[in-house]
Amino acid sequence: IGINCFRNCNELTKISIPDSVTSIEENAFSECISLTQILMSSKLEKISNSLFYNCSSLKKINIPSSVTSIGYCAFFQCTSLMEVIIPSSVIRIENNALQKCISLVQIKIPSSVTSIGCFAFNQCSSLTLVEIPSSITSIEKYTFRLCTSLKNVSIPSSVTSIGTCAFYECFSLEHVELPSSLTSIREDAFAKCPCANDLLKK
């Protein structure tokens, strides 16, 4: 399925992609604002950049186990998206992948994922639970900025660095478990979080 193939198809509500399809190019379903349901091919190799950008009616995504990466801005501003199931085949979650998914409540990142990009979950304001696997070695800048419902975070012992503004303005974040493996916490990583004072005391 080619670049921009169904972009701005405002009346499209449901689509089923046959298993014969292995590739869907960038922006193919971008800004399909009425799309509520999509059944993806079980042979799909990746979620391309901006594939579902601003699909503001999409509520749930079950990513097939053939997919190895979730691209840049893949689900950016999918404001109704409440559930994303990420399979253990996924290795990379790129920059801004789920930014502004304001209805997303929780996310389980499988241990197969070794890289989560900058801004990946930025402004997911309903996110209350995130499970960061021990396969992650760094939390990049602005990854969880303005996740204003997030209360607790456990950083695995594999993580050595936390980037600039990684949890900036997480106004409900009261408890963070920091591992002894950390060698770098960049500026404003936990600024304006309730936990910041406690972290400074440690």
Distance between the termini: 53 Å
Number of strands: 14
Backbone CA Rg: 17 Å
Proportion of beta-strand residues: 15-25%
Query: Are there runs of 5+ residues with pLDDT below 50, and where?
Result: none
Order of helices and strands: EEEEEEEEEEEEEEH
Count of discrete alpha- or pi-helical segments spanning 4 or more residues: 1
User: What is the arithmetic mean of pLDDT?
Assistant: 94
Strand order of the largest sheet: 4-6-8
Helix content: under 10%
The coarse silhouette is: globular
The largest sheet, given as strand count, sense and whether it forms a barrel, is: 3 strands, parallel
Instruction: Give the helix/strand class.
Output: mainly beta
Overview of the molecule:
By secondary structure, the chain is an all-beta fold. The chain contains one helix and 14 strands, in the order ββββββββββββββα. The strands form six sheets. The protein has a three-stranded parallel β-sheet, with no helix packed on it. The radius of gyration is 17 Å and the shape is globular. The N and C termini lie far apart (53 Å).
Task: Show the helix and strand layout.
Blueprint: E1 14-16, E2 37-39, E3 60-62, E4 69-70, E5 83-85, E6 92-93, E7 106-108, E8 115-116, E9 129-131, E10 138-139, E11 152-154, E12 161-162, E13 175-177, E14 184-185, H1 196-201
